[in-house]
Amino acid sequence: MKILVPVKRVIDYNVKPRVKADGSGVDLANVKMSMNPFDEIAVEEAIRIKEAGKAEEVIAVSIGPAKAQETLRTALAMGADRAILVETDDEVEPLGVAKILKAIAEEEEPGLVILGKQAIDDDSNQTGQMLAALMNRPQGTFANTVEIEGDSVTVKREIDGGLETVKLTMPAIVTTDLRLNEPRYASLPNIMKAKKKPLDTKNPADFGVDIAPRLKTTNVSEPPVRQAGEKVEDVDALVAKLKALGVA
Amino acid sequence: MKTLVLVDHDNNSLGDATLAAVTAASKLGEVHLLVAGHNCGAVAEAAAKIEGVGKVHVADDAAYEHQLAENVAPLVVDQMGHHDAFLAPSTTTGKNIAPRVAAGLDVMQISDILSVEGDKTFTRPIYAGNAIATVESSDEKLVITVRGTAFDKAATEGGNGEIEAVSGPGDAGISSFVSQELAEGGDRPELTSAKIIVSGGRALKDAETFEQYIMPLADKLNAGVGASRAAVDAGYVPNDYQVGQTGKIVAPDVYIAIGISGAIQHLAGMKDSKTIVAINKDEDAPIFQVADIGLVADLFQAVPELTEKL
């Protein structure tokens, strides 16, 4: 079985995004970029499934600028076997990404596609579900645990108020939540080895799908700033304040 | 415009998140509801009473009992033949189903809207709430998820919707429900509807200490209990306690952050609270930049004292 893992190059988790003064977007010039954290969890899960002997090959794919190669090399250094870059400088929306991924999945025929539940830049939380819909395959979103038995996969999902377990017939789509695993760091020898692993470059046009954007972003602004209030001296002063608010 | 709102429910009662989605939908046009479930008559009746609701479409079928996306999405796609916009609350169920509907309709979803600016124009948070984007859709039909804390809740009385049974394709046969484990909160209010929330961070050290310091205060205030992602990652509490961009988005009357430094991703989940109270021993902690009332103190002394004096 093959596992396909889409990864996205996004602003690093620790960088505070700055909104451009002209309202055209977020300033990404000279900002540290990394693999979307949820995608790292997806790569890790795919590798663990392979290490457990339940998959033969892990294929990382990214849709983005030439620099997304770095993100794919990170996936390869973690343990993915080969990578596909669908190179474009245009922003591709989740629906377009899902269409490209569907075309790749038709070629590669993976038993599982594991994706991050959302990217930390556009926070859409859509691509996995859309891919599942387009392929008419089941989806295990917000996964906490993934277990493969025969031709089905059991996914424990993080839901409001607790956990839900569903059983899906493979091929299936899984999206990762935070507690699924803790991604490994790539070791230096593995980073060196990753440079020699195959990385194919393609164009969106190769897949013959419509990826024209449907949404137009007309403005990006700072969120309303909350003003700091006051500090109180001690617990008694805090109690008085809380009582004034009608608490207790 | 005719809108269709997905009702959040557990086959017995209607979830609060539905009410915010109804308010958002009413800004677009006529509001119809969809209850997909099994033996869910009580939910349909409650839904019909929501103020401003026209029709309530009820799909009562064993295939919809657990609201599996594989089964519910095709039902919604069918119903969208005579509706212009589909709105789902940003609950885990809504987030699971809506994109599957959007792809089925070949529409780009607008996630987690904060406001309705026009027939096809909305605002939504990006970059963990560090920026707000205004987006305009060019799709013929709309698929939207609604952030519950961003809209007032529609009144649960005063409506007189017409209940109409509908049916869909049923079981897609590719997925099945196995089990559900809901966290035992006892009598504690649910995070997303609690009026007061007491939330703990990494400074609580471990699960026992979290329990020992946070729970008595929460019990005294009849508050919901939350946690930062750091506390969840460290294993102090389960993930459904998590408040933040990747957890729950809350906006209670009073949010008490204890031993929480105030990482961007946490602030994104609670900064719309009416009053924020912070207790932290680091006076430079970012949480104090958003707190209305701050106390610089060692939580291990301050929290028990506070619990006793309230």
Describe this structure in words.
The complex is a heterodimer of chains A (248) and B (310). Chain A is α/β, with parallel strands linked by helices and 248 residues long. Chain A has a single domain, classed as 3-Layer(aba) Sandwich (Rossmann fold), CATH 3.40.50.620. Chain A is built from 6 helices and 13 strands. A 7-stranded parallel sheet of chain B has the order 5-9-4-1-2-3-10, with helices on both faces. In chain B, strand 6 (115-116) and strand 7 form a beta hairpin. Chain B contains 8 helices and 16 strands. In chain B, helix 3 (69-79) crosses helix 4 (92-105). Chain B has helices at residues 17-26, 41-48, 69-79, 92-105, 207-221, 229-233, 264-270, 299-309, and strands spanning 2-6, 30-37, 53-60, 85-89, 110-113, 115-116, 121-126, 131-137, 142-146, 162-165, 175-182, 196-200, 224-227, 254-258, 275-280, 293-296. Classes of the chains: A alpha/beta (248), B alpha/beta (310). Chains A and B meet through helix 3, helix 4, strand 7, strand 8 and strand 9 of A and helix 3, helix 4, strand 5, strand 7 and strand 8 of B.
Features:
heterodimer; A: 248 residues; alpha/beta; Rossmann fold; 9-stranded mixed β-sheet; 6 helices; B: 310 residues; 7-stranded parallel β-sheet; 5-stranded parallel β-sheet; 16 strands; elongated
Structure in a nutshell:
Chain A has helices at 37-51, 68-78, 94-108, 127-135, 188-194, 235-244; strands at residues 2-6, 9-11, 33-35, 57-64, 82-87, 112-116, 139-149, 152-159, 162-169, 172-176, 199-202, 215-221, 230-232. Chain A is an alpha/beta fold and 248 residues long.
Please give the domain count of chain A. 1
Q: What is the CATH superfamily label of chain A?
A: HUPs
Sheet of most strands of chain B: 7 strands, parallel
Order of helices and strands of chain A: EEEHEHEHEHEEEEHEEEH
Q: Oligomerization state of this entry?
A: heterodimer
Helix content of chain A: 25-40%
Overall body shape of chain A: globular
Helix share, percent of chain B = 25-40%
What spatial order of strands do you see in the largest sheet of chain A? 9-8-7-10-6-1-4-5-11
Distance between the termini of chain A: 59 Å
Compute the number of helices of chain A: 6
Shape of chain B: elongated
CATH class of the largest domain in chain B: Alpha Beta
The largest sheet of chain A is:
9 strands, mixed
Mean pLDDT of chain B: 95
Number of strands of chain A: 13
CATH architecture of chain A: 3-Layer(aba) Sandwich
Mean pLDDT of chain A, nearest integer? Answer: 95
CA radius of gyration of chain A is 21 Å
Provide the low-confidence segments of chain A as ranges.
Answer: none
